[in-house]
Here is the input.
Amino acid sequence: MLKEFKNFAMKGNLVDIAVGFVMGAAFKSVVTSFTGGIVSPLIGLIFNSNLKDLNWVVKDGVANDAGEIVGEVVVLYGDFLTNLIDFIIVAFVMFMIIKGINKTKKKEEPAPEAPKGPSQEDLLTEIRDLLSKK
Here is the structure.
């Protein structure tokens, strides 16, 4: 069983997937940093606040004895928009990478057409007829 697992784990496709997964996770953190540090503040200029901090208070909460607000219902649409921008950037970059990879792949040459003329059966029939005349 251990030998089978080793063979499975060392297959090229599985190793490629693992490398791709690690690279994707690293790329995701770069995109998140880009969105949070550059894109969000620039978009936040429009709303006069940080994009991630945008929210809609559906129901106001009540302050308890400790000064904490309890029962507040808030829709965090700014956080959602930031994550949506992250996803769009990652999806676009992955699309461009796959498009580039597909462009570099060798295009399969079409199979050569069958030679025109008599079929193999016609030739065998002709040979049979010639041999029977002798």
